[in-house]
Amino acid sequence: MSRSVAAGRAPLWRDRTFGTYWVAQSLSAAGDSFAYLAVPLLVLQATGSVARMGLLTAVAGAASVVAGIFGGVLVDRYDRRTLMIVADLTRLVLYALVPLAWLAGPQVWLLFVVLPICEAAGMLFQVAAVTAVRNLVDSDRITEANGRLQATYAAAAVLGPLLAGVVAARFGPATAIAVNAASFALSAAGLWLIRLRPVQVDEGVTRERPLAEFLAGVRFLWRQPVLRALTVLLSVFIFLTYGFVDVLIYHVTHDLGGSEGTVGTVLGLAALGTVAGALLVAPLRRRRGFGATWIGAHAICGFAVAGVGIATTVPAVTTLTAVYLCCLSVGGICSMSLRQEITPDHLLGRVTSAFWSTHYALGPAGAVVLTWAAGRYGAPAVTLAAGAGCLLVAVGALFTPIRRAGVESAAGQPGLHPAPAGG
Asked: Does pTM surpass 0.70?
């Protein structure tokens, strides 16, 4: 689209459909931050074990990976908005069970039932939400839309953990989870009020068995050089960082003597980093290109992760976590926008789920290893090792097509052309 035409369009924030979607998901993100803090605190409070926290994270993550295998097939076959509403209502009901059950005392076993199902529903929702952006805005505004969504998600997440810490300290973590359950009702209501643009369907594409359709997404990833490299490197990165929040909570409460409120403050203030990353990503990518932006972000992530465990004060931990979240936001939005831009619409759900389920596959194992090691050897040793691994991921990217992605003009960018969509 020409610059003159783009200049004549109304600002994105004035688009009523996008705005409704934007507000509803921001409110839901604020609620999510309650569970983000409350679930680990519930386990730690009931068992005193960081390893048990990691096990729950791993079980929930495994359910998410399994759901991701077929989530993209569902998203490409059925109405994306309807699937998102169903996922919201499922999580509303299940999360509401936790505070009700906790009235009779700690029921840790219930978390091992509820959280995996909610994570599976969440994966379906996330796949649908990513593809929905393509049906909300024009293709040349995808990165801008993603940046705005992630910025407001993060802004909501700043207030969320702060309030969650206060609620958990005064009323208990189970009450904080009840707030999260209510947030899914708001999200579902907002989605009910909007309509998405129709999915662009390739008339030559025929429906196959679900596994065959999922494999079509996998093949697209494998044939596209940059996406293939991203999938491999992010699989390692996720292994190293999937249990980071559990280790962070353990470090703040066990090593630094912080309370539930302290943890909420750390996560809430650190979420400002995600806001900053979401606002910086579009101009950074325009000026530096995809490759330099993505590699630089993950290199800085490595230094920040390494520093968190050896930090001896809460302000230092908060600052380093904010840096980590800022760069994680930059890298994540870059890779997500790239997939949306170069993937055919009828394949987008399957490519998204193939990407996530593949590179998240090692995450559950990583959470178990990181939290077990933190309990045995301490948080400083674990974060140093994880940070060094993240830095190696960034160095490894220098020897892949990622390095050159976005250096040349859009017409001649190497590795950014869509791979064959057939098969």
From this structure: no
